[in-house]
Predict the 3D structure of the following.
Amino acid sequence: MTHVTEEQLVLYFYGEAEETAAIAEHLSSCPACRADLAAIQRTLNAVDGMPIPDRGPAYGAQVWQALSPKIKPRARFFPVWLQPRQLAACAAMATLLVIAYLAGRGTLPGPGKVEVAQQSVAARDRVLLVNVSDHLERSKLMLIELTNGAPGTLYQDQARAEDLLAANRLYRLSAKRNSQPALTDLLDELEQTLTEVANAQPGELRQIQSRMARQDLLFKIRVVDARMRQTQRQPIDISSN
Amino acid sequence: MSESDGIAIERTIAGDGEGFRVLVERYSQLVFRLAYRMTGSEADAEDVVQETFLRAYRAISTYDGRAGFTTWIYRIATNYTLDLLDKRRRRAEQPPPQRIDQEQQEWEFPTAAPGPDRLAEGSQLHRRLHLAMAQLTPQERSAFVLRHFEELPIEEISEALSLGPSATRHSIFRAVQKLRRSLAPFVSSEL
Ligand SMILES: [Zn+2]
C-alpha cells in the first residue's frame, strides 16, 4: 500500500474511513503516516480549546421566558375552537349562549321555569362533555407519567390527580345523565384510580401501577377518547339560539 | 424532575405548553453551543436558539421519533443557521473588495475574548482558532461541528445537511484540512 491520503487519515481519526483495517496496518509500519496522523490530532486538540461563552445554568429558563409569549398551546387533533386555551372561553361562551337562549324563553310565567331549569342542566352537560376529551387526555398523560416516574415524584402526580378527580366527578355525572354508558363506566374506573393515586402512600405506587395494567385503563382511555373526538367533529348543538 | 423526551413531546402535541418548556430548558444550552460554533457570534447563536425552538414547536406533530430528539432539533438549528449565514454571505458579497479582515464580519468573533485573566498566548490561540473557523464554508463548518463537537455519525449529519454521505465526509475532510493549514504554525510550535 502507498501512503495513506490526508483524507483517509482524517476520516480514520473520526472512525469513518472505509478501509480501517488496511489503514491501521499501514500506520503500524509507516512512521511518516503516523506522524501525519499525530499532526492532525494536535490540530484537532487545539480546536477543542475554542471557548464557548457560558450562558449560565438559568439559560434554559431564560430562553423559555422569551419564547413562551410567541407560542400558543394547541393540540393536533382539536379543531381550532377546541384548542385547550380556547376551551375555557369556549365553554363559557356556550354557557352564555344557552343562558341567553333560555332567558329569551324564560319570559314564560310559572311552569316554564321548571322547563328552563331542566333544559339548562342538559345544556350544561353537553357543554361539559365537549371538554371531556381534554380531561381524558390530561388524565392519560398523568397516568403515563406516574407509570414512568421516579418514586420520589409521586407527590407531584398526587396534586394533579386531585385536580383531575374534582373534574372527573363532574364529567361522570354529566355522562350518566346524558346516558352515555361507555363513557360513564370509563370515568368511573378512572375515578377509582385517581382516588387511589391521590391517597397513595409512597410505597403503594407499584400496586397502583399493576392494577392499572390489569384493567388496561390507558388503553380504554385511548379508545373512548378517540371515539369522543370523532363525535366532536360534528357541530355541537349550541347554535339553537 | 426527569421527564423523558417522549412524554414531554406527547404532552406538547396534546397542547400542554409545559411539556415544551421541559424540552426548551433541556436543550437550550446544546443548541446555543452548536449555533455559536457555527456562527462564531453570541447574538446570532441566541437568535438561532429562539428560532429553532419556535420552528420545532410548530413542527412538533411531524416529529416521528425515527431520529432522536437531539438529531431532530440539530437538523432544525443547522438549517436555520445555514440560511442565516447564506443570507449574510450574499449581503457581504455586495461590496467588491473583500479583504480577510472583512471576512471576520461574516463570521463574527468576539475580538476581545471574554474571561478575566487569560494568558496573552491563550487568547492569541483563540483568535487564531476563530479566524481559522471563519475560513471554512458554512457547509464545511456545519459538517465539522456536527462531527467533531457533537459527535454525530455521518448518516445523521448527511440528513441534517441534506447532503450525500460522501459529500458529507468530504466536507469534514476539507474543514480539517483548512484548519490544519491555518493552525499549522501555531500548533507545531505549541507542542
Ligand atoms: Zn505511509
Remarks:
- The two ends of chain A are 88 Å apart (CA to CA).
- Residues 75-86, 101-117, 235-241 of chain A have pLDDT under 50 and may be disordered.
- Chain A touches chain B through 49 residues (CB under 8 Å).
